[in-house]
Write a structure and sequence with these properties.
Layout: H1 7-14, H2 19-25, H3 30-36, H4 39-50, H5 55-61, H6 66-82, E1 88-95, E2 99-105, E3 111-112, E4 115-116, E5 120-125, E6 130-134, E7 139-143, E8 151-157, E9 162-167, E10 171-175, E11 184-187, E12 192-199, E13 204-210, E14 214-219, E15 225-230, E16 238-241, E17 247-251, E18 260-263, H7 265-268, E19 278-280, E20 286-291, E21 298-305, E22 310-323, E23 326-339, E24 348-351, E25 356-360, E26 364-369, E27 374-379, E28 385-390, E29 394-399, E30 404-409, E31 416-422, E32 433-439, E33 443-449, E34 455-462
Antiparallel strand pairs: 1-34, 2-5, 3-4, 5-6, 6-7, 8-9, 9-10, 10-11, 12-13, 13-14, 14-15, 16-17, 17-18, 18-19, 20-21, 21-22, 22-23, 24-25, 25-26, 26-27, 28-29, 29-30, 30-31, 32-33, 33-34
Helix pairs in contact: 4-6
Pfam families: F-box-like
Organism: Mus caroli
Domain F-box: 1-45
């Protein structure tokens, strides 16, 4: 005997379920299948996981329903977890002109069930140009003209296939990486120290910091200056935006300059706010920060101080409070711990959406909860860890011999699962340096330079998965 509940209370109940449970509910009967496949439910799940999901997202992906989008996107994300080392094609792109260590993806995620899209990387060369490379084909797809001044900083906005550069003369330029000439140009008053492009709920913007502690907000695509605010006494080197760009943390590693968190709308809506709304987080010598994925208001900061040095982690929840017409920001300390008992200092770290902190020393990968409870250790010896890349899905460990270990965050536990190791085909130069390692759903890249200042882009391109 089938049970038929009214649609409204049934939908309310289903709205509390995760995707796996919804798929199970859909197997009960035809009526439950129809309710559990509702676009209202699946769009909510899509927005929770990927934040910016609207009707344009469906059209760009060629999907008809949010359920179809969710299922295919999850398949795409997990394709790399299911892969084996021989599913990757190893490529090395020699960059004889040298690099300044900048390499960012300028393409969206790529794997689909019908085939494989391009994975494109944007880079700056020492010859004052920027270029884009198709990772799978190992070819240049676009190159800018030689610029009159050396390019100092680069950031990209993959969702719009846009790159932004700042040169040593403080000229900021926006490129769509199809046209030879820049789409827009503007100038900063002082040398630029930090640069970031993001999409907010209002508009896509560029945030740029200078040596005087000013923060410039430019609109994309015309680089119209929205506002300029003096936010810190000196130039800052860290810009950390929360997942949905509600908050932005600005920091500098300095004993007397404390990190500040600003409410993003107070920068963008100048007619609504007479001054930026912010608060100071009382952690000196902040070295890195990481917003908790899929949780808009939680941030973890890492500092290193003392002699011998010890590492400290503090986790805050940000809150906007209103008192009549006045709005203030408060940062509530929710957890804190120190790594005093480890012989080596933590250099890199990240946080999962389950509030698990992963950090690396030279010889180990460590997992803690935000209160400092030790969960697991992965040992590395005789190799040394030189880089760590953390995102909501992956943790990539870069070793001093150029090899990469790929880990996946477990869906239903706090731990990491080691998936596989990728090896470089040749020994690293004796005095080589690994600038960075980043990944998307289709490829993993790392940027390496040797003692002659010649550079290589090492890429691992995932083949089509069945």
């Amino acid at each position: 005997m089938e049970i038929h509940l009214p649609s409204l209370p049934m939908m309310k109940i289903l709205s509390y379920l995760d995707a796996y449970s919804l798929l199970q509910v859909a197997q009960v009967n035809k009526n439950w299948n129809e309710l559990a496949s509702s676009d209202v439910l699946w769009r909510k799940l899509c927005q929770k996981r990927w934040l910016y999901c609207d009707i344009d997202t469906l059209q760009l992906q060629g999907k008809e329903t949010w359920k179809q989008f969710f299922v295919d996107r999850i398949w795409q994300e997990h394709a790399k977890f299911r892969a084996k080392p021989n599913d990757f094609t190893h490529k090395e792109i020699a960059l004889k002109c040298g690099l300044f260590g900048y390499a960012y993806y300028i393409s969206g995620c790529g794997l689909t069930r019908k085939g494989q899209d391009k994975s494109v990387v944007c880079m700056v060369s020492s010859k004052n140009t920027i270029s884009t490379w198709d990772v799978h084909k190992s070819v240049i797809t676009w190159k800018s003209p030689v610029q009159p001044a050396s390019i100092k900083l680069l950031t990209t906005l993959p969702e719009m296939h846009i790159a932004v550069t700042v040169d040593i003369q403080s000229t900021i330029k926006l490129w769509d990486c199809h046209n030879r000439e820049a789409l827009a140009t503007n100038n900063l008053k002082s040398p630029c120290t930090s640069l970031k492009a993001v999409i907010t709920k209002d508009d896509p913007i560029v945030l740029a910091g200078d040596t005087l502690g000013n923060l410039y907000i430019f609109r994309i695509p015309d680089l119209h200056l929205i506002s300029t605010v003096n936010v810190l006494p000196y130039g800052f080197d860290g810009i950390y935006c929360s997942p949905q760009k509600k908050w932005v943390l600005l920091s500098k590693k300095h004993p007397y300059i404390l990190p500040k968190v600003f409410y993003m709308n107070s920068f963008l809506r100048t007619s609504e706010f007479s001054a930026p709304v912010s608060t100071v987080l009382k952690l000196s010598l902040c070295e890195r920060a990481f917003w908790t994925p899929r949780r808009e208001d939680r941030i973890t900061l890492m500092s290193r101080s003392g002699f011998p040095q010890f590492t400290k982690f503090e986790t805050y929840d940000m809150k906007l409070e209103e008192f009549g017409d006045k709005r203030i920001v408060k940062g509530h300390l929710v957890a804190s711990f120190e790594l005093q008992y480890h012989k080596e200092n933590s250099k890199w770290f990240g946080v999962s959406d389950k509030d698990v902190i992963v950090c690396s020393t030279e010889s180990s990968l460590l997992l803690f909860d935000i209160n400092g409870l030790h969960l697991k250790t992965f040992q590395y010896c005789p190799e040394m860890i030189v880089r760590l890349s953390v995102d909501p899905l992956h943790v990539i460990v870069v070793c001093n011999n150029g090899s990469l270990d790929v880990y996946a965050w477990e869906e239903r536990s706090l731990l990491l699962r080691k998936c596989y190791r990728l090896h470089i085909d040749r020994p690293l130069p004796l005095y080589g340096f690994i600038y960075k390692a980043i990944c998307d759903d289709v490829s993993i890249i790392q940027l390496i330079t040797d003692e002659l200042s010649l550079s290589s882009l090492i890429a691992y391109a995932l083949n089509i998965c069945s």
